[in-house]
Amino acid sequence: MSEPKTVLIIDDDHDFVNAIEALLQSSGYQVRSAFDGKEGLHLARTLKPDLILLDIMMTERTEGFFVLQEARRTPELSHTPVIVISSIYAELPVFRVNPEAGWLPADLFLPKPVDPARLLAEVGRLTDAARSATSGSAAARRES
Amino acid sequence: MKILKIPKENLDLFVAVLPAFGEVYAPVRRGSGFAFDRPGRWTEVQMNYPRTILPPKKFFLPPRETTFKFDSSKGYQDQLAEATKPVVLFGVHAYDIFGLNILDRVFSQGRYVDPYYVARRQNITIIGVDFQPDDKHFAYSMNADFVESGFDLFLNDIGEDYLVLVGTSRGDDIVLMSGCLLQAPTEADFAEYKRRAGMRRSAYRTRLELEELPEILEMEYHSKVWEEMGERCLSCGSCSAVCPTCYCFDVNDELELGGNAGSRIRSWDSCLFKNHALVAGGENFRATRASRIKFRYYHKQRGFVAEYGRPSCVGCGRCVAACPAKIDIVTVIETIRGERDESRSGVAAKA
Predict the structure, then answer these.
(1) What pLDDT, in 10s, does the model give residues B135-191?
(2) Which of A2, A114, B17, B339 has its CA 20 to 30 A from that of B60?
(3) What predicted TM-score, i.e. pTM, was given to this entire model?
(4) Taking the CB of residue B34, how many other CB atoms lie within 10 A of it?
């Protein structure tokens, strides 16, 4: 039986975190949480989670963007799947930059409020893909 | 040139989009000074800073870089890939952009083009920002307080907004990606820009007269001022390190154990260092500190003029700030010009 997958939630909204934690734990995920970017990066480096759920508007309204950039610069996190979940487009109508235009190094962007079923499906998809990639690499190394 | 504007309150969102064009470096606090580094959050970015400790030249001419590796079994492998990493330098002052334009003349034009410098110049996006001069800035005197090219975007403070000048097609790409963050400016914005530009020119407290300076330096070649400076100068090379346009470098081969492979390393050098003019056989053409510091001044204010048509000094004031012996270039030049009493000036900056 494979190890349970770990999801790290980085979000300053405690109610949102509690709700997503319950959702993911009921589906068999281990969940850890951080409530600001600095704490989140520290936990991510320590835990090396299977996936990160990242908010953008925290202590500063662009905090999540900087956290994501720093995570991608960190070797052990550069390939960790990241789903950005944010209400930035609803709260800042002037910010109309398409999140899929190549500037956001996340695997997926989901607007808040997030559809729980969609979130679960995407978390499953991305963590399965990441684990397949990891086990494939390990098998290739063993063969060589 | 396309001109737009961005409200200051939206600058954080604008910077969030910049990683699409490379790793973002911006002025952040470093001890008691400032440095170009990757900000951990928007509030670390300093939009109003006097100068950074090291100029942006460190991105284009790294203090130490491997130009190629060699191996008896594999031949040569250049390290150009390192030089092609995309970077965005955000918040560069005009005199620093001017300094890069000067380095362009040395490294990217003429007969011998440096591929590493050129690769970095092509892959580094420059977003400039204006600044308020302090008591060490004299960029206005050096005609380097304003720059017309060498940047992709340039931000000018007009109060609640920044006027954004688009300098290149890459700058235009950034504007297009930023969507609604940028707006069309108004006549009132242009009027405010002109008003503030005039105020900025008037705000320079340090001025340097450049007229006939190369000729005066020629006449003062044997002035005792250089001996006095030689006594004060520590030959530490700080002035060269912090200068946007000093570009002397040394080249060394570092071998691996066994001697079959190694790397060719290029690293910063300084004409202030004792061995800078030391040649094979033991002759040192500038053995004394006086001769070395004189050489630096002559190169900056006379030699470069003869070769490239203007002094290579951009008036950033970093050498004044960095010199542990408190040697002030403006004081020295004024003394040489006879505008300052040598017996009283001591060719040193005011304490």
Answers:
(1) 999 999 999 999 999 999 999 999 999 999 999 999 999 999 998 899 999 999 999
(2) B17
(3) 0.91
(4) 19
For chain B, what percent of residues have pLDDT higher than 90? 83
Instruction: List chain B residues with CB under 8 Å of A60.
Output: 12, 41-43
- CA distance to partner chain A, nearest, from residue B118 (Å): 25
Tokens 């300093």, located at residue: B46
- What is the distance between the alpha carbons of residues B169 and B315, in angstroms, rounded to a whole number? 29
What is the rounded average pLDDT of the residues B240-246?
A: 96
Query: B12–A60: do the CB atoms touch at under 8 Å?
Result: yes
What Rg do the C-alpha atoms of chain B give, in angstroms? Answer: 22
Dist CA A123 CA B82 (whole Å): 35
Contact A62 B42 (CB under 8 A): yes
Which of B12, B20, B178 comes nearest A61 by C-beta? B12
Distances (CA, A) of B295 to B86, B287, B288, B298: 36, 12, 11, 5
